């Protein structure tokens, strides 16, 4: 699959073994192929996992209340903290590509390989950031389709308003504070 091959090339360029560290969508596809199903985690995560499999594009769901300030994809300094799902604290290696916030928390390691237990979706989560990334040739048209699919499903299932955007080198920011303000307004109404 072109979508997976592009991530494997990207991981190789980062110095990672692409069959040891797989992007999230490849890991989901492998698990689904081997087991015939995926574990049920949370309705929103299950929905995003199904869409990730359908598009072969990694999708992550972050609990916005666990993110300090903005989140950015960048190289680690090595001082960031990453909370595993088992509760252990790790420190990403310097130059590793991570999702980091203003407090030095790493919310994902090895770019799209592993999400942090800190910002994982839980039953008490009220506001989320859903991120989809792709590197393959038709990513510029496939990612907006994936985002539209998620937005349509969220509106149909939960009747919620979704703010969405596509980031690029010419438009590298998505204002999380506006997304949080929208969520707060919805809770107050």
UniProtKB/TrEMBL annotation:
Tell me which residues make up the B3/B4 tRNA-binding domain.
5-156
Q: Which domain of life is it from?
A: Bacteria
Ranges in a coiled coil:
none
Query: Gene3D superfamilies given for it?
Result: Phenylalanyl-trna Synthetase, Chain B, domain 3 (3.50.40.10)
Entry-linked SMART domains? B3_4
Task: From the Swiss-Prot or TrEMBL record, give the protein name.
Answer: DNA/RNA-binding domain of Phe-tRNA-synthetase-like protein
Q: Which organism is it from?
A: Rhizobium miluonense
């Amino acid at each position: 699959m072109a979508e997976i091959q592009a991530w494997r090339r990207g991981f190789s360029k980062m110095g990672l073994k692409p069959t040891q560290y797989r992007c999230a969508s490849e890991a989901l596809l492998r698990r689904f192929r081997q087991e015939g199903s995926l574990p049920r985690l949370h309705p929103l995560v299950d929905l995003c996992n199904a869409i990730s499999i359908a598009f072969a594009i990694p999708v992550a769901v972050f609990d916005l209340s666990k993110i300090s300030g903005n989140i950015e994809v960048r190289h680690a300094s090595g001082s960031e903290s990453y909370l595993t799902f088992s509760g252990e604290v790790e420190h990403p290696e310097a130059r590793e590509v991570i999702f980091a916030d203003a407090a030095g928390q790493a919310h994902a390691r090895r770019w799209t390989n592993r999400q942090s237990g800190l910002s994982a979706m839980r039953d008490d989560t009220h506001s989320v950031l859903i991120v989809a990334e792709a590197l393959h040739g038709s990513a510029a048209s496939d990612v907006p389709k994936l985002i539209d699919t998620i937005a349509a499903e969220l509106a149909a299932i939960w009747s919620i308003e979704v703010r969405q955007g596509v980031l690029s080198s010419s438009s590298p920011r998505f204002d999380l504070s506006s997304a949080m303000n929208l969520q707060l307004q919805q809770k107050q109404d």
